[in-house]
Amino acid sequence: MRGAPAGALPCYPDAGPCRRTPPETPRVTLDIAAHLTRDADRIAAALDDALDAAPLDGEIARPDRLIAAMRHAGLGGGKRLRPVLLIAAARLFGRDDAGVVTAGAALECIHCYSLVHDDLPAMDDDDMRRGQPTVHKAYDEATAILAGDALLTLAFDLIAAPAVHADAEIRLAASRELARAAGLGGMAGGQMLDLASQHAPRGETDIRELQAMKTGALIRYAARTGARLAGAGPDDIDRLTRFGEIIGLAFQLADDLLDVEGDASALGKAAGKDAAAGKATLVALKGADWTRAELARLVEAATTELQPYGTQAEPLLALARFVAIRDR
C-alpha distances in angstroms, 64 versus 52, 73, 91, 153, 287? Predict the structure, then answer.
């Protein structure tokens, strides 16, 4: 992973449990829960508007059952981490308007479509998501497939909106990068590798590549695109890209740790499924203690990337810490 220092950090006994960051990491005073809620609510409002029953110009009709299934997938809770990260990255460089929220809603549509399809019996076969029945359970498999398809295509309608950026070339770049982050060489390809990894031996390099694609690609996109939409220069875009790569890995490590140690009622979905399916994860390969130390190292690496921005980067630093120590 580019930008991350080599070597894992040890636990810090004098700093409390190993999951906490090293004592030299600056304290974050931001109320991250309130911060997440505020921007997540903006994303939810944008999705609510995008999933209105009235057809748009160029559309013929919006079937009621399909709209209901899409709303179940897109408006049924969730942290909205990816779009919140996009908004926070744009805010760092001075932009925080409705167009950035629209870009975040496009990204959330991609994420929600992926969850709908991942939950299908042919994939991970999950019955619960975000504390409620998965779309194929609440409706049926065919409707779930179509709801995922429609959310995927809606994402590209949203990212192409003129409000996202006045320059059509910037919007085109955002659209192209979203396709690549979500598709063959990104999230969808990572899901294919994940399915192929079940009960198959995988080394650390293979697992890191899989996770960088399946989970990290969209998180990397969020940080990078937020900076780009706000007019950041090439060096800043590169720095935010590295930051996104770091917390993308941290998110997946924390997710894998929660699958091993988390409580299903708190998670809102089944726990222990990765181990039962024989999936390759770094937690399974390296152990929980190594994973906690690696999460601490990743938070420190993310902090290093943000240092040039001083206190203005506090929301992004808070997000990095939240990703690493979350309990759901």
Answer: 10, 14, 36, 18, 47
